[in-house]
Structure formats: structure tokens, C-alpha cells
Amino acid sequence: MIEPASLVDPSAPRPIAAITGVSAVHDPRPPLTRALGAAASALHLDSAAPADGVIVSAGADGTTAAAAISVAASARTPEVARAVADELRAQHPTADRITVQVRRIA
């Protein structure tokens, strides 16, 4: 019998929610952008929602990969934020900027 753990590719990107200490993943877009995205969705217009809690955007300053998370109260917030940033960097190596917002510690 094959062990399930042996089926997991360790080099594959892992979801942000799977990182130890992350208790929830949120939409990293600003509130107004989220509201406009919800309105566009209700009107059946195309809008770019984040994939797996990560949004990648390009601007004049370069490319940014962003995530917003809640951290478990039992975890050390700086270490969790660093782990999320490291995972974003691994998933998006060409990004010029990595942003991790800690929205809640619960």
C-alpha cells in the first residue's frame, strides 16, 4: 500500500491556509476593490478575484504578490508572516514585492 504522504510533491506550491499558524486566509484587496469586485460579480462582469488567497498585480513599481491572513493566537505572528512571505516568494519568484497583511490574531 502506498502511503498518502508519498504522493505529495514537496516542491509543489502549498496553499497559504496550509502553513502552520495560519487560521484563515482573506481577500488581500482593499475594501473598495472588494466591493467593486462583488458588484461586478453580481452584474456578471469579469473581475479578477484572488486565487487561493493570493493576488498578483503589476504596476509602475513592478509586480506585487499579496496575501492577507489571520494568525492563530497560539502561534508567533512574525514567524507565521515570514513563512507566508517565504511561500509567496517561492510561488512567485519574479515578484518585485511581497506583501503579507495580518488582519486578525485569533
SSE layout and pairing:
Elements: E1 22-26, H1 31-42, E2 54-59, E3 62-71, H2 77-91, E4 97-105
Parallel strand pairs: 3-4
Antiparallel strand pairs: 1-3, 2-3
In short:
This protein has 106 residues and is an alpha+beta fold. It has helices at residues 31-42, 77-91; strands spanning 22-26, 54-59, 62-71, 97-105.
Give the SSE string. EHEEHE
Radius of gyration from CA coordinates: 16 Å
Bin the strand percentage. 25-35%
Q: What structural class should be given to the helix and strand makeup?
A: alpha+beta
> How many beta strands in the DSSP annotation?
4
Mean pLDDT: 80
Model description:
There is one protein chain. Mean pLDDT is 80; it is low at 1-9. The longest helix is centred in the C-terminal third of the chain and has 15 residues, at 77-91. Helix content is 25%, strand content 28%. The chain has helices spanning 31-42, 77-91; strands at residues 22-26, 54-59, 62-71, 97-105. It contains two helices and four strands; from the N terminus they run E-H-E-E-H-E. Strands 1, 2, 3 and 4 form a four-stranded mixed β-sheet that branches. The chain has 106 residues and is an alpha+beta fold.
